[in-house]
């Protein structure tokens, strides 16, 4: 009996790494990216079971998922994550630098240096090192086939978050500047770099800063009078990753209900 070799549906799918993809905006981005044809590396820091649930949703959409634990603030863990992606799947062509933290609400004169260093370590140093490794794989300068990077900033970068977390706002300001600079650095090397600035979005990050209800308490300060949903942020991220954004680089897109 003749047999026909059929390439698996996943053979040509582009590979996307999303940091901090076990919940919130990262998880919503993983789900939508899978629906749009990406194979997804689900990076997580702590909650393995949640990361596995996201991976199951990626697979249910017909795409591959690879779950990898790595603290983005730890260079050795980031390098090990990329080595695993290289070995098991090959070169990636998409990165969403999504992992981010806030600390409990405070004024600057109440913050310890340790808190500020950890926050900058995850939100800024982590994002730069994770992006550096992506560039080494995507840029035509390194023999890559190009790609797209989306950095998740925040409306806080523009607003400053006085009395709440100026350290967090400063970290996102750094992400904005980094996005513009790297976009220009790579513009002729086949890699687009853009950022999304979410406004107040209903995710678990607010519990970490001490007030899970903050997005709803502050809804009156948002022109649309409601917090965003993770899926609404994901839609902008996935668009910036897509070929529909092929002439867009070095720019920041506000997804903030007008705030
Ligand atoms: P979230 O807390 O639900 O998700 C953040 C994810 O990052 C979690 O999965 C967490 O485990 C992961 N993470 C944290 N530290 C990590 C580390 N060191 N290494 C790897 N992963 C790590 O919050 P979210 O709202 O989904 O936040 C996603 C991004 O969106 C963050 O960068 C955040 O700053 C940004 N953002 C959120 C809002 C909002 O209102 N929710 C607004 C603006 C920007």
Class by SSE composition: alpha/beta
SS summary, helix count: 9
Estimate the mean pLDDT confidence.
Answer: 95
Give the CA-based shape: globular
* Strand element count: 7
Rg (C-alpha, Å): 18 Å
- CATH fold name: Rossmann fold
| Stretches with pLDDT under 50, minimum 5 residues | 1-10
Instruction: Outline the biggest β-sheet.
Output: 7 strands, parallel
**Domains, number:** 1
Spatial arrangement of strands, main beta sheet: 3-2-1-4-5-6-7
CATH level-two architecture: 3-Layer(aba) Sandwich
- CATH C-level class is Alpha Beta
Helix content: 40-55%
Strand fraction equals: 5-15%
What is bound: which ligands? nicotinamide-adenine-dinucleotide
Compute the separation of the termini in Å: 65 Å
Helix and strand sequence: EHEHEHEHEHHEHHHE
CATH superfamily: NAD(P)-binding Rossmann-like Domain
Pfam family, one: adh_short_C2
Keywords: Oxidoreductase
Protein name: SDR family oxidoreductase
Family: Belongs to the short-chain dehydrogenases/reductases (SDR) family.
